[in-house]
Amino acid sequence: MNRKIVLAFFAVILSFACALQSRVVYASGEDLPPARFTLPAPDSAQVQKYLGLKEMEPFTIENIKAKLVIIEFLSALCPQCHANAPVMNKLYKMLQEDAGLSDVKLIGIAVASEKPQIDAYRKQFKVQFPIFMDETFAISASMDGVATPTTMIISTKDGKVLASHVGVIKDFDAFVKELRASAKK
Fold first, then answer.
1. What is the pTM of this model?
2. What distance separates the 2 farthest-apart alpha carbons in the chain?
3. Where are the alpha helices (DSSP H) in the chain?
């Protein structure tokens, strides 16, 4: 292979890897399309109750009984997603305990992961929040093919992405500050 082509290929790969590692801290969601995808039916009555859904059937973000939903796009085999799992667990626990954020729900969307992988991920990281499968990449594609992990704060009123964070959340307090600001809007 031509040396210039090989170097160009590696430069592209390196750029992509660096982009995934970089933090886009609390960027506005204005560049992202609204969350208008359909999620699969909840896998338990507990998940149905948590999300305030009327039926055990496929649903949209707008069907969730909350003002905001935080979506964690993840992959069960992604090392950065593994690093972010404790942050998401901490966030989920905080949402359960903080009366000021009682109208916010947290879900995960597993991109490029099969059920046994997600089950192992849930067990390994003691994940309690619901995780929905994106087996066909339809959800990820509808959000412009998000990288993993990506955390979005979304209005359930209209599916608008209010804020987005790519990569591991390293400043939990800053993320919570952005979440509280979004909840006041």
1. 0.84
2. 61
3. 3-21, 45-51, 79-97, 115-125, 138-142, 172-184
Domain count, the chain: 1
d(CA 64, CA 35): 12
Alpha-carbon torsion 124, 145, 66, 40, what sign? negative
Answer whether residue 4 is part of any domain. Answer: no
| 52: CATH | 3.40.30.10
- Encoded tokens for 170: 């390293």
CB contact at 8 A, 28 and 152: no
Q: What is the pLDDT of residues 3-14, one digit of tens each?
A: 444 333 432 332
Q: State the Cα–Cα distance between residues 126 and 120, nearest whole angstrom.
A: 10
Residue 162 lies in a domain: yes
| Residue 14 resides in a domain | no
